[in-house]
Structure formats: structure tokens, C-alpha cells
Write a structure and sequence with these properties.
Length: 207
């Protein structure tokens, strides 16, 4: 089983924890990670882009000149795509980019993402994370004490308003709960900071 140190908010090592081999010690599957991240990014797309085709641009109902005898190329509308003010060829229209990925693939991707953090020594386990009040200064001090990278993801077991508000104004720092944890965020941030309580909950969900 992978074993990592546990730190307090002052950055002192206060023990260690054995992580579940089935969740934090699997072989990292790069292809599955790619597929799930691609799926997440596709599902985030709004798909609201739109442009007008030649049929939708205002005007152009009259044929600009007769078909033959003028010496010019044939033209049926002044709103043809190659005319100034004409419509767009294959114009983009609102569409839904989202698609689904099998649950087993998502679970394997989550385990691979968590295991990659352990293998790359990017996981920091805290014994607890209880801030008395929402203060950015306290969160900055905590991140400095545990030597977190500039881009850090802070994961708690339950929704913690003080932690969320204290991290809100720190560039590159994001908070999440076990329920909102996703593969893209785990891979996006260089430091994965998680409480001991949240570790147990993650192992229960993905074991």
C-alpha cells in the first residue's frame, strides 16, 4: 500500500497514512485519462456559436443581372458566400457537444488520476483543515507551510465555507469536496491537498 506523510496546518509532519492500493496505487492509464478529460471539456462547451448562411442573410432576393449576354459570370444572388455581405459557407449553428462515457471508464480515470498524484509526490494530506474565520491570509500561510505549488487543489470531505471563501481570492488555488472531485481538476493542479477525512471518503466511494 502507498504510504504518505500527514501534516498539520503548520506544515509539521504528525504521522503517516496508508492509502488504498485499489484507489491510489493502480497503474496509470493515460488513454483513459485522455478520453475522460476530453469528455469533460466537451461537456463544458456552450455550443451557442451561430452565423448566417446565404439563405438567412437579409436581401439578395433579386437576380443581380440576366443569366447570359453581359460578359460577366453567372450570379443568382448578391448574398452568395463569395460576395461582400454574403452568407457564410457551412455556417456554425447552435449544437450540443456533450456525450457520455461509461461509468467504469470514469472510475478507472479517477483512480489513475489519484494514483498519478501519489506517484509524482504531488499529494499533501492534512490531519484536518478547520479555519476559524474566512481569511485569505490564513490560507496563504497554510499553503506556504505545506510547501504547496502555485497551482493547488484543496479537497475537503464536506462543504466548508471558511475554506472556500479563504481560497477565493488566491490565484491558482481551487477548492472541491469529494462529491465534486473530477479528473480534469486533479490533473490540472500541481499540488493535490486533501484532508485525512476526505481520503477515507474517496476510498469508500471508489474502492
Amino acid at each position: 500500500m502507498p504510504k504518505v506523510a500527514i501534516y498539520n496546518v503548520s506544515g509539521q509532519e504528525v504521522g503517516d497514512i496508508e492509502l488504498s492500493e485499489a484507489v491510489f496505487g493502480v497503474e496509470v492509464n493515460q488513454h483513459v485519462l485522455y478520453e475522460v478529460v476530453k469528455n469533460q471539456l466537451a461537456n463544458k462547451r456552450q455550443g451557442t456559436q451561430s452565423a448566417k448562411t446565404r439563405a438567412e442573410v437579409r436581401g439578395g432576393g433579386k437576380k443581380p443581372w440576366r443569366q447570359k449576354g453581359t460578359g460577366r459570370a453567372r450570379a443568382g444572388s448578391i448574398r452568395a458566400p463569395h460576395w461582400k455581405g454574403g452568407g457564410v459557407i457551412f455556417a456554425p449553428k447552435p449544437r450540443d457537444y456533450s456525450y457520455s462515457v461509461p461509468k467504469k471508464v470514469k472510475r478507472l480515470a479517477m483512480k489513475s488520476a489519484l494514483s498519478s498524484k501519489v506517484q509524482n509526490s504531488e499529494i499533501i494530506v492534512l490531519d484536518e483543515l478547520n479555519l476559524a474565520a474566512p481569511k485569505t491570509k490564513d490560507m496563504v500561510a497554510l499553503l506556504s507551510n505545506v510547501k504547496a505549488a502555485k497551482k493547488a487543489l484543496v479537497v475537503t470531505a464536506e462543504n466548508n465555507e471558511n475554506v472556500i471563501k479563504s481560497s477565493g481570492n488566491i490565484a491558482g488555488v481551487q477548492t472541491a469536496t469529494v462529491n465534486t472531485l473530477n479528473v480534469y481538476d486533479i490533473l490540472k493542479y500541481d499540488s493535490f491537498i486533501i484532508t485525512k477525512e476526505a481520503v477515507k471518503k474517496v476510498e469508500e466511494v471508489y474502492a
